[in-house]
Amino acid sequence: MKKILFVCLGNICRSPMAEFIFRDMVEKRGLGGVIACASAATSTEEIGNPVYPPAKRKLYQLGINCSGKRARQMNRADYDAYDLLLGMESRNVARMKQICGGDPENKIRRLLDHAPQPRDIDDPWYTGDFDTACRDITEGCQILLDEINLSHAKD
Ligand code: 4NP
Predict the structure, then answer these.
(1) N or C: which end of the chain has fewer CB within 10 A?
(2) Cα–Cα distance measured from residue 74 to residue 71, given in angstroms and rounded to the nearest whole number
(3) Mutate which of 11, 96, 110, 125 for ligand 1 pocket (most atoms within 8 A of beta carbon)
(4) Residue pair 74/99 in contact by the 8 Å Cβ criterion
(5) For residue 10, what are the contacts with CB-CB under 8 A and spacing of at least 6?
């Protein structure tokens, strides 16, 4: 089982979108038994809160229901529990490494670090642009799934 944790600042916009979009892709490819994912925040701001309505609407448009999701903060134990911890932007990655006390196993990076144009996913909480965030997240999830699929095929 490959375990992925998606991480953003609040865990109510970008990382839950990544969690639910990625899980949907995984299930559609019949890989639900071999890949698992979740999402978490670096901050304490939104702990316990549901997905922010505009993000929830984007997921709903894709036929994805995220109604049970509540924000939680990541912690040091997540470093051992997950194979890969993917932040949405450089600032997330810096904070994730701080929370985990470093990254000795090279598990922490940005979701779009392996994209043709490696970049941050801007925070739609501030930009209001949920379409761009959703497009960027979908691109990152597709690349991630292809990578895992390839490495799995080699096993
Ligand atoms: P997210 O967006 O990191 O994509 O979930 C944010 C949501 C809430 C806050 C910041 C970013 N906040 O400060 O409450």
Answers:
(1) C
(2) 10
(3) 125
(4) yes
(5) 41, 43, 45, 46, 52, 71, 125
For the record, the structure tokens of 131 come out as: 């379409």
Ligand 1 midpoint to CA 8 (Å): 7
pLDDT at 148 over 70: yes
Residue nearest ligand 1's atom 9 by CA? 10
Q: Check pLDDT > 90 for residue 151.
A: no
Average pLDDT, the chain: 96
How would you classify the pairing of strands 108-110 and 84-87? parallel
With a Cβ cut-off of 6 Å, ligand 1 is lined by 8-14, 45-46, 123, 125
The pLDDT value recorded for residue 46 is 98
Other beta carbons within 10 Å of 126: 9
Cα(13) to centroid(ligand 1), Å = 6
* CATH code given to domain 2-154: 3.40.50.2300
The domains of the chain are located at 2-154
Q: What backbone phi and psi angles, to 5 degrees, belong to 10?
A: -105, -20
* Torsion sign over Cα 125, 99, 72, 86: positive
Question: CA separation (Å) from 11 to 6, 19, 59, 116, 130?
Answer: 9, 10, 15, 26, 14
